[in-house]
Structures are given as structure tokens and as C-alpha cells.
Amino acid sequence: MWRIGVDLGGTKIEALALSSSGKERNRVRVPTPRGDYGATLDAIVALAGRCTEGLAASEVVGIGIGIPGSVSPKTGLVRNANSTWLNGRPLARDLHARLEWPLAIENDANCFALSEAADGAAQGCGTVFGVILGTGAGGGIVIEGRPLLGHNAIAGEWGHNSLPWPDAEEAPGPACYCGKRGCIETFLSGPALEKQYLALSGHAADAKSIAERAKGGEGAAQTVLAIYARRLAKSLATVINIADPDAIVFGGGVSNIGTIIEMAAAELPAWVFSDCFDTPLMANKWGDSSGVRGAARLICPR
Predict the structure, then answer these.
(1) pLDDT in tens, 180-200
(2) Would you say 184 and 160 are in contact if contact means Cβ atoms under 8 Å apart?
(3) Long-range residue pairs from 270-275, CB within 8 A, at least 24 positions apart, any chain
(4) Which CATH architecture is the domain 121-284 placed in?
């Protein structure tokens, strides 16, 4: 049996068919029609059709879609999406009307965590916290192979809590698109890291370049990464103090800077409310495929 997964991102939409054993087929990717809700629907429907080519209708059990936001259990409308043209839209209803299969839509960070817990870096772990450090700071929780959605469907949204234990110069913090100030996302997203580097060095650079400059011994880059790692450790400590996961798995472009994760791991014991700390901080297995594979896994095979 095959499940269709769609990862609806801000710059690309990716889809594939995934078997119960984790085998892939018909993987396709197209640019996201940014700002155009109708064209986004058309793209998802077209990709689903391409993924099911060569499969009998009885072989397809459903389609799962990961989005950069969530569907409100109150209104059924998309909310909190940084792909803002989705917000306030009845995405599930509109796709139900155009697709013939059972449908599930969840936050893309939940899909990432589900993929890595199922057959990725955290396979075999009971409770997994998946962290995405990229254009935002997202998170998803999986418990015994099932994503934790929460009563209000916001479980794992650590990026929109305040930075814990802020230093004097960190309060009240930058303004966030959610309307508040000092959210973790405003300190730990890729754009936030780049802004911090620009403020300290006077030079613009992306996250990858900052990492390379730090490796080459540049003081400003090393300082910015150290500050980032400390903030990351404090932010993770609040999750560990509440959920105490068996593993934390990282995704997103900033997480590819391995030294950040290593430095955060060294800082964490000072902030965790325990006399010991040995929770593994893991790089992901599936890279940018985790989202689409996890989306497919939202559908339970018959």
C-alpha cells in the first residue's frame, strides 16, 4: 500500500508516494506559487496526481500534507503560517473537494519529527522532540510513534514562547510577526542569526558563511555562534524540563552548523533542572526529505 506525502514549503512543494516499508516512488518537486492560494491548490492536486501515476486506486490509502502553520480546530482555517497567503483559508475543505483520498494536514515540524521518529535518527525512541532551525524556529513532539497535537493543536510550538532567562540586553527582545516581542524564534531563526552577525561585525553574511568564518578564526563569527548556542541551550532546557524527551532531532539550515549543536549540548546541564543530563542531540537522517516522508506517515495504512 502507498501513502502520498506533500511538503508545502515557502519556496518549494515536494511530493512522493511512500510504502509501508518506507520505500519511495514518484518523488516530484515544484516551486511554490508564492502569494497565490488558488495556484497553490492547483499545484498540490497536480503533484498528487503525478505521485499516483502507475498505481491502482486501491493501492493508495490517503494523502498527508505538511504546512508551515496549522489548522484551527475551532474554525477549520489555516493559522500561524509564515506562508501568509494560506492564513484564513479552508485548505482542508478545498482539498477534500478536489482529491479522492482520505486527507490529513498537520504542521510541517510535526511531520519532520514523525519521520525521524519512525525510521530516522530517533527510530526506537519513545518521546522525540523535533526542532527546525531555519527561516523560523519550529518544533514537533512524537510519543510512541504518534504526533502530539494537543488540545488546541499547537503542541511543540516552542518558538513562540519567550526566550527564557534573558540577559538584560535581550529584554524585551525583537518584535515577532506573531505580535509579541522576544519570542525564541526572533533569536534562533536563520534571519535572526544573520541579523546578530551584521550588528556585531558590520558585515552581511548567511548562516553558512558565518559558520565558515568562525571556523577560520574570525572573532565576530565565533562570538555570535557562542551567543546563539547559549540561547539555544536555554530554550531547549524549558522543553526538557517539561517533556524530558528521549531524543532531540534537529533540522533546518542553521542546524547544519554542527558546532552550534555541540556548544548547546555543553551549555545545557547548567539550565536543566536535574542532577544529570544525557539526552542525545541528533542530526536528522533524512535531510530535507523528512518533511515529505513524515507527511505521508500522517496516513495510517489499512
Answers:
(1) 999 999 999 999 999 999 999
(2) yes
(3) 270/233, 271/164, 271/165, 271/233, 271/234, 271/237, 272/237, 272/240, 272/241, 273/237, 273/241
(4) 2-Layer Sandwich (3.30)
Q: List the chain domain ranges.
A: 2-108, 121-284
CATH 1.10.472.10 applies to domain 2-108: no
Contact 293, 115 (CB under 8 A): yes
pLDDT tens readout for residues 1-44: 999 999 998 889 999 999 988 999 999 999 999 999 999 999 99
The 3-state DSSP composition of the chain as helix, strand, coil percent (nearest 5) reads 40, 25, 35
Write the pLDDT tens digit of every residue in 32-69: 999 999 999 999 999 999 999 999 988 999 999 999 89
Q: What is the distance between the alpha carbons of residues 7 and 111, in angstroms, rounded to a whole number?
A: 9
Q: Please check whether the two domains, 2-108 and 121-284, share a CATH topology.
A: yes
Give the three-class secondary structure for 31. Answer: strand
Q: What are phi and psi of 142, to 5 degrees?
A: -125, 130
